TrEMBL record:
Domain of life of the native organism: Bacteria
InterPro entries on file: Membrane_assoc_protease, NA-bd_OB-fold, NfeD-like_C
Compartments, record wording: Membrane
Keywords associated with the record: Membrane, Transmembrane, Transmembrane helix
Protein name as annotated: NfeD family protein
Length: 155
């Protein structure tokens, strides 16, 4: 009975979906699962409608992939996954509260600060080189800074 089962394009789509699920398990990224869903649905449709043809199968796969990703995106927005480090991919948020040093005077609201072993553009009150500041946020690739409490402004 299994002879010829893989002669059907639908079976190949389902097998491809299964491989995508295994790849998702091996390399978690929460994306391949959506493609796997699209592949399995396309496989089932191909088995139900053998006249679908390659073009129809590709359109089905693309459409179901978009639908699966949109549903997944909505799901993760409404039911976010708890993380032990929620700021992992938000570099600016991780820097808020850090003490930094001005390396290019902040004049007219703009200068440069040292953060770790790198430098960032900074926006804040005027400050001379060497002034210690605190990061309060970020804006378009620059950090917002303010003087440390009790620090006298330097010019």
């Amino acid at each position: 009975m299994m002879d010829g089962w893989f002669d059907s394009p639908g079976a190949w789509w389902i097998a491809g979906g299964a491989l995508l699920v295994l790849a998702e398990l091996a390399i978690p990224g929460v994306f391949l699962v959506f493609l796997a869903i699209a592949a399995v649905i396309t496989g089932l449709l191909s088995l139900l409608f053998p006249e679908l043809g390659l073009a129809g199968q590709l359109v089905s796969f693309a459409a179901w992939a978009v639908v699966a990703v949109l549903i997944g995106k909505r799901w993760y927005r409404e039911f976010p996954v708890d993380s032990s480090d929620p700021l992992l991919n938000d570099r600016v948020a991780r820097l808020v509260g850090e003490t930094v040093t001005v390396v290019q005077a902040i004049e007219n609201g703009t200068g440069r600060i040292r953060v770790g072993d790198g430098e960032w553009t900074a926006h804040g009150p005027d400050a001379s080189v060497g002034t210690r500041m605190r990061v309060t946020g970020g804006d378009r690739g620059a950090l917002r800074v303010e003087p440390l409490p009790g620090a006298l402004p330097q010019h």
